[in-house]
Write a structure and sequence with these properties.
The structure is a homodimer.
Chain A lengths: L14 E5 L4 H11 L4 E5 L6 H4 L12 H10 L4 E5 L14 H14 L3 H14 L3 E3 L1 H4 L8 E2 L7 H17 L7 E5 L2 E5 L5 H13 L11 E4 L13 E2 L1 H9 L4 E5 L4 E2 L2 H10 L3 E5 L6
Parallel strand pairs in A: 1-2, 1-3, 3-4, 8-10, 9-11, 10-12
Antiparallel strand pairs in A: 5-12, 6-7, 6-8
Chain lengths: ~290, ~290
């Protein structure tokens, strides 16, 4: 049964979308436009896709240009801001600081000392103090949330379902530590847990271990499980999947991938379903264990 | 305060030492000889070090030659068996099966379906059913257990101590899942959790992430923490460290490495201390959180 998505609230002011990399920002922009709301994109230099950005009203900004972003968004009469897309966690020296950001710097440096959750929710508070309302992408474009059920033709076997349950339990146990949102489980054996390396690197590791004979399960045994962190602020950093994740799962020789329905976002569901069918893996949204 | 080690029981029958790779088997054999007991080595082909093996009475065996091992150990009047040294988890097709092992095969295949703990304790039961007593290396050679305190000249800072506590908490949370015994924590941020890849591969990953700028902490921030799994049968698979671990920690740019005192084994303490001092890292044994 698919989740009933909340209806995004209709307002007259355009939505500011700060865009990292990947196709998610544009899926969100398109959904917002379909809902009858205007959108202004603020692509981040080095992350936003220039060709795609051209299709929307936009202003390029650099990391660290918080003042510039505030001025431009105010001039566009934006009040709501969404921050979406891949953003390799930048080193401090890569950030170009404007005056506004410079004043906030001591605070940001303190935030950097915590985990990702603390950094992101801290940045959320800073936006709010400057008169913006920071929303989750799923609040303005609920259709990007993965629904329950299989996306392509394949569904998890009984063994896969047991592996999914184990993976969810591992991720729940990791919750207090503000780390990875993904694990790989094969026939009850936890093969990999994600921390700072990210899901794609973790999948490459599983592919390597298999090639080296360190994983003895045949191709088609094992599941990638992704879930939002326990207690995480879902306005930021909801786990996302896309064609790249599907390709990684296929290369790692797994049976499929399971994500928490209503707690995972996806830009291109049809592309994902087609890629999954072609690679003979399943992609499934499972009920949220935190809400049961 | 160093742990008081249990005195190994003196017996007349020689100890059978099944030897995997690395220097640990020989450290154990030397300690047993110092305690006045004879030892017969059963080095595993492809794992045991041939040059070192020559110094002791020995019989080469292949993986899967359980029958041969039983016959030879009985002829040598061994009753106690210790299994020690690195053993990359072999794929089933690498194992050369003798008749005895062939009869046990269905049972071993079932054991392979669980995690490492289940495999190892199951193999322990098989030994016992054949009239042997399987002991932990630390029971016959207590001096190979790491004691509390710093091994070289450096000691963990206050921040390092907080990272050690976080690492131990992560490993405790992972306990129910029968996976890795190691994690890397830097300034409260969990950078890596070990599963099927092993400690050395996890340290290489941290070194890579640092080189790619994905880890923003300066060199000298972060700790490798190793601990026995919660509830693990300590006769098998106690975590071990050696010069290779120290080299990995230095390459990963960490401040040092902490292991659970009395729950971690080490072959060459002087070599480890010298390597740690040269690389400007600490190596410390910390109290066992499971026994507090």
């Amino acid at each position: 049964m698919p989740d009933s998505h909340p209806e995004p609230s209709a307002t007259d002011d355009p939505l500011a979308i700060i865009c990292g990399g990947g196709s998610l920002p544009f899926a969100v922009a398109d959904a917002v436009l379909r809902h009858g709301r205007r959108a202004v994109l603020f692509p981040l230099r080095g992350f936003g896709d220039p060709a795609a950005v051209e299709r929307y009203p936009h202003h390029w900004i650099a990391l660290g240009q918080f003042g510039r972003m505030c001025r431009l968004a105010s001039a566009e009469r934006c009040r709501d801001v969404v921050f979406i897309g891949n953003l390799t966690r930048p080193s401090l020296h890569e950030i170009r600081l404007d005056w506004q950001t410079l004043r906030l710097l001591p605070r940001i440096v303190r935030l950097y000392r915590g985990g990702d959750d603390r950094l992101l929710s801290g940045i959320g508070r800073i936006f709010e103090e400057h008169g913006f309302r920071l929303l989750g992408a799923h609040e303005v474009a609920p259709e990007i949330l993965v629904a329950e059920g299989a996306m392509g033709k394949r569904a998890p076997s009984e063994r896969d379902q047991a592996d999914i349950a184990t993976g969810l339990a591992v991720l729940a146990a990791m919750g207090p530590f503000d780390i990875g949102q993904a694990a790989v489980v094969a026939a009850g054996h936890v093969l990999a847990v994600e921390a700072a390396e990210g899901t794609d690197a973790m999948l490459s590791r599983v592919a390597d271990l298999r090639r080296l004979g360190r994983i003895r399960y045949p191709v088609g045994v094992g599941v990638l499980v992704k879930a939002p962190k326990v207690g995480q602020d879902r306005r930021f950093d909801l786990p996302s999947i896309g064609p790249q994740t599907v390709a990684g799962v296929i290369r790692a020789g797994l049976a499929g991938l399971a994500v928490v329905a209503g707690g995972t976002i996806m830009a291109e569901p049809e592309v994902v379903a087609t890629a999954a069918d072609r690679g003979k893996i399943f992609v499934v949204g499972v009920p949220d264990p935190q809400r049961q």
